[in-house]
Write a structure and sequence with these properties.
Layout lengths: L7 H6 L4 E3 L3 H6 L6 E2 L5 H14 L1 H11 L2 H17 L4 E3 L5 H14 L9 H19 L1 E7 L5 H6 L7 H5 L16 H17 L4 E5 L4 E2 L2 E2 L2 H7 L4 E4 L3 H24 L1 H17 L2 H4 L1 H21 L5 H23 L4 E5 L1 H12 L9
Parallel strand pairs: 1-2, 1-3, 4-5, 4-8, 8-9
Antiparallel strand pairs: 6-7
Helix pairs in contact: 3-4, 5-6, 7-10, 12-13, 12-16, 13-15, 15-16
Length: 373
């Protein structure tokens, strides 16, 4: 039998297959990418055993557990674990702390299915701690530079052209603005943090020591940036991306109207998808009513309603430019002008997209292992 695992770095660097034996409710609160949840106990069973433990102690709880998970139920779960083990001979199993639950699964696999299968020592909690420390170490030891700029200048496009860029919005499945929700849901907070940490871990293992990030607020939708990273971002040097108003309007039209509508249609079908897309746009505008002011909101909402009617009728999106341009000029741009002024001392370069990409590629060349494309 392979030894139980304490090398968390290896687990994540090499995407080792892992079987999570925690209850489904625990798994949904936070897990690691690619793992399979095959619980020892259901949520209800876990709740009953927890109550028993509090009232009567560990031994009584163990006995109740054996009663609840027995017979056909036990056989079905062991078969599911065995199937996973056979399909993933180099994998591991774990529970929350690497204790009783994973030990029981390990023992039953051996006694009932004849399979020796190793577990992760310390379980989920130890691996989660390792990933939190991974992010903290990267913040402490690596060089970071931010890409800032007005809404719609194409900051994500810049990141896509750099080998050492970390796309926080992609990890959060959100475009980062009041209109940034996608058709699919955002990850749980813990999942977001775990995926980000693994991304940093793999990049550092490949030799990267400098990272380019978009200048973000603390919240990307409902996902909150890890505090050490966010605190660092208040001081990192900044590269400012510039573009014309016309280009910015077109970029936002494409991303927030054409592409977002297509996302909803792909998920829900043509009719329901368009209805959900239209509701999302209206909701996004309504969410900033207080900051827009009543008169301005009513004016932009009327343009948006007309644009959505035309889009539904004949597929044309031209009228959307009206509310997009007004929102940029009257709402977003004044905020970004203030931001640029407040961050002026940190701006080390400013320019349009190609100049910014070239600057950041040259900048990364000063750091060993940093890719240039």
């Amino acid at each position: 039998m392979r030894n139980d695992c304490t090398d968390y770095r290896d687990l994540f660097l090499n995407d080792r297959a892992m079987m999570d034996t925690r209850a489904p409710v625990e798994f949904l609160k936070g897990a690691f990418p690619g793992v399979t949840n095959l619980p020892l106990m259901t949520d209800i069973e876990r709740q009953k055993i927890g109550t028993c433990y509090k009232q009567h102690g560990q031994q009584a709880a163990i006995e109740l557990g054996h009663q609840l998970v027995s017979g056909r139920t036990k056989a079905e779960r062991i078969e599911a674990w065995a199937a996973f083990a056979r399909a993933n001979p180099d994998g591991y199993l774990y529970c929350f702390r690497g204790g009783l639950r994973s030990q029981i699964v390990q023992q039953w696999l051996k006694s009932e299915a004849g399979i020796d299968y190793p577990r992760v020592v310390g379980g989920y909690k130890a691996m989660r701690t390792f990933l939190l420390e991974t992010t903290e170490q990267a913040v402490a030891e690596c060089d970071f530079v931010l890409v800032g700029g007005m809404t719609g200048t194409g900051k994500t496009e810049v990141l896509a052209q750099l080998g050492n860029a970390v796309d926080l919005e992609a990890h959060a499945n959100h475009r980062g603005s009041s209109f940034g929700k996608r058709a699919s849901a955002q990850p749980a907070q813990i999942d977001f943090e775990n995926v980000l940490a693994i991304d940093l871990l793999k990049r550092r293992a490949a030799g990267q020591q400098q990272f380019v990030l978009e200048d973000e607020a603390r919240l990307i939708g409902r996902c909150s940036l890890p505090l050490p990273l966010y605190q660092g971002m208040q001081h990192y040097p900044l590269v400012w991306l510039e573009d014309s108003l016309a280009d910015r309007v077109e970029r936002i039209l494409q991303a927030y109207v054409v592409e977002l509508c297509a996302e909803f249609v792909a998920v829900q079908g043509a009719e329901a998808g368009f209805a959900a897309f239209a509701a999302r746009l209206r909701e996004s505008l309504a969410n900033i009513t207080r900051r827009l002011g009543g008169e301005r909101y009513q004016r932009l909402a009327a343009i948006m309603d007309q644009a959505l009617e035309e889009q539904a009728r004949d597929g044309q999106v031209d009228t959307h430019r009206g509310w997009i341009e007004a929102l940029l000029v009257e709402y977003y741009d004044p905020m970004y002008v203030f931001q640029r002024e407040s961050k002026a001392a940190r701006i080390e370069f400013a320019g349009e997209q190609q100049a910014v990409v070239e600057y950041l590629r040259q900048r990364s060349g000063h750091f060993p292992g940093a890719p240039t494309s």
